Amino acid sequence: MPNVPSPTVHTDLRAHHRKLTRPRQAVLAIITAATRHLTPAEVYRQAKVQYPHLGLTTVYRTLDLLVELGYIQRIHLEEGCHSYAPTARPHGHHLVCSECGRAEEFAECDLDTLVRALQTRTGYEIQVHVLELMGRCPTCQTKSRPLRARKK
Amino acid sequence: MPNVPSPTVHTDLRAHHRKLTRPRQAVLAIITAATRHLTPAEVYRQAKVQYPHLGLTTVYRTLDLLVELGYIQRIHLEEGCHSYAPTARPHGHHLVCSECGRAEEFAECDLDTLVRALQTRTGYEIQVHVLELMGRCPTCQTKSRPLRARKK
DNA sequence: TCCTAATTGAAAAACGTTTTCAATTACTAG
DNA sequence: CTAGTAATTGAAAACGTTTTTCAATTAGGA
Ligand SMILES: [Mn+2]
Ligand SMILES: [Mn+2]
Ligand SMILES: [Zn+2]
Ligand SMILES: [Zn+2]
Q: The whole model's pTM is what?
């Protein structure tokens, strides 16, 4: 039986008195299978293939819900702001080229020492971290140097 | 002679064929003196005190310019997205409470090892890092627990 | 002082996101 | 297998933010 959403989601939803609807299944299918972060608009366009009647409003609402349930995470990027990615994988960060926008993903992030120290000092209960690196990719390094030349 | 912008800015601007105008001075005064991150709208409202004729469009343009010149940095927060803060201080990160929005600043971030490893592996020339932590502040911890209860 | 490129702000457009609301749907209780 | 009901939906409109356009103004070098 293909395309049946994982029983976990179904259970999680029931536990919160939420329904597993066709629109939600379509969004879920796209975002949990994504190999890279997707904007709400991208999720919308792709999920419509499976469920053409889908509304953008519902995409936003479903993405919010999935973040709450911990299935996906919200990502903040320099351009375009706000994408979503599955949380499944250990957990991802991005290294983005500030010139061409090309991005690499990486998973390693040794923040535990920092996080523990900060928790002690501030009393916060730290749950999430956002780490993004920016620089120039190898390709762009071979090109121009200076900080944004004027048009002249 | 009070309120004269630091000679550095003036020089930097000239070097890039840019002018030091009244509107820019007003924006510069606010954002470089800020003790916390400010949104463009906040900068606008505050800078208008000094230069009432200021336009919001100019605030956006000036903030972009100052980022390019390295005087301020763009900050990505969960709510409201996009604030700006002076780069002067060693360099700052934020620990934000996901419930009440209260924020702490912190400066320590041992990313050098990570950054060097990634540079080697990817060939990127890493210039900037964004690190934000989120969690529950001490106050909010004393309140409700669960992940967003339904209204009933 | 003059000249010109850079800059400005109002207005409008373009975005991304949220709210509203009447109609529809998924689950549950019977 | 029904109802009954709360949850959900999507179109439309409202929203707040950011960008574009363009004619008028201005800073700073010649
Ligand atoms: Mn963001
Ligand atoms: Mn952002
Ligand atoms: Zn690049
Ligand atoms: Zn709090």
A: 0.69
